[in-house]
Amino acid sequence: MKSICLIGFMGSGKTTLGKELAKKLDAVFLDTDEEIIKWRQMGIPEIFQVEGEKRFREYETEVLKGLPQKDTVIATGGGIIEAKMNRDILNNDFFTVYLKTSFKEIKQRLAFDKNRPLWNQEMEKKQQLYENRQSMYEECADQIIQTDDYSTERMVQMIMKCIVHY
Predict the structure, then answer these.
(1) Domain of 114: which CATH number?
(2) Partner of 108 at 20 to 30 A CA spacing, among 54, 122, 129, 148?
(3) Which domain holds residue 98?
């Protein structure tokens, strides 16, 4: 099986869904953010503060390049699509599923989350970031799954159905 990359805005459920999907497929689960944390031995907010977002995006690219292209379910960071090279890798090397979540739903899910550097800013900037990324997610997607109003179990079923037809 070609590895599956889950992409989408922060709070779209990539990690939660990825873990469940990996169990169903009896596949390995990896999270690019967790891989960066292990490699750099510091949390993402700390990387943003000490080294900056640009450096973090470089780490994302390095991690993405080294991910297995078979038998793995991968949750990516919400901004992994910012780099053209990453979009090319996602398009060429993985079956990529975009978990499309409305901004309204994202706001509810992240209402009390303080661990996301790009979420801890003014609402207008968050919404602009969300809107700016939509076309990049769509550019990479082999499949788009709307996540609003669906349970994790239902979304796993939807993705499993897509994989069979891929």
Answers:
(1) 3.40.50.300
(2) 54
(3) 4-165
